[in-house]
Amino acid sequence: MPELPEVETVRRTLNELVAGKRIQSVTVHLPRIIQRPEEPELFAAALEGRTIQTVERRGKFLRVLMDGLVMVSHLRMEGRYGVYKQEEPVEKHTHVIFHFDDGTELRYKDVRQFGTMHLFEPGDELLKPPLNKLGIEPLSDEFTAAVLRKLLAKKTTRLKPLLLNQEYVVGLGNIYVDEALFLAGIHPERTADSLKTKEWELLYEAIRITLGKAVEAGGSSIKSYVNGQGEMGMFQHQFSVYGRQNQPCNRCGGSIEKSVVGGRGTHVCMACQPLPRVRRNKAIAR
Ligand SMILES: [Zn+2]
């Protein structure tokens, strides 16, 4: 599933490709992609004649701002956008086509069919699902080490599921949580309340650095991710732990281990990310 760096890359390329274009009509081949309004006919009718102003991002969602309307789009597992000339053959698994009045088309392709599209009146999209419960943007000025600590420091649950939960910090998925925790030298199974102030600072820095570098590299192309112009991201060549099980750690030479934490494949270097021993005496004392 694309995470913040991949969605941000799609946003940038898409913005260059479609901003200023006017939608003449919309064809929906797979109604289930359209979540709001429920009827694909109403979705298509509402978009007719709208001009795309800009493409923004909230967490892992794209926000396509138009005159008087906002489309919220989630790519889920394998959704892809691409801009084509009208006469170019339509590829298999193309489910929604936005026909522009300049002879080009924005096509949404999705082999797995899990992607979603919602329409809202401007501003409404932030107050209703799927965007209303999203947490803080990790690359925003508002996100600081103190904010991260305040959000999570009292939680008694393990860090990895907390960082994956989009209600606290948005945009992090399995790849970037593993990479950030490695960079911070913190084991994903540590409980949030076990972190010291210094460790919150390290984790904060690691999240910013990891996401920043990945955005710079155009995201990570694993499985089928490509940006809006069909180009691959390059950050997968900089992974320290993700997908590197049984390979040597770049920092200490030890072996990267893979385990399952909260149902997700998790990659750690046990030497660089030590797991403190459970304090048994605490349990005995009770
Ligand atoms: Zn190591």
- Give a quick account of the main beta sheet: strands, pairing sense, barrel closure: 5 strands, mixed
The largest sheet has its strands arranged as 2-9-5-4-3
General shape: elongated
- Assess the beta-strand content as a share of residues: 15-25%
Number of helices: 7
The CATH first-level class of the largest domain comes to: Mainly Alpha
- What structural category characterises the helix and strand content? alpha+beta
CATH architecture of the largest domain: Orthogonal Bundle
Quote the distance from N terminus to C terminus.
43 Å
Helix content: 25-40%
User: How many independent structural domains?
Assistant: 2
Output the helix-strand order: HEEHEEEEEEEHHHHEEH
Oligomer: single chain
Binding site for DNA: 93, 112, 155
Pfam family, one: Fapy_DNA_glyco
Keywords: DNA damage, DNA repair, DNA-binding, Glycosidase, Hydrolase, Lyase, Metal-binding, Multifunctional enzyme, Zinc, Zinc-finger
GO molecular function: 8-oxo-7,8-dihydroguanine DNA N-glycosylase activity; class I DNA-(apurinic or apyrimidinic site) endonuclease activity; damaged DNA binding; double-stranded DNA binding; zinc ion binding
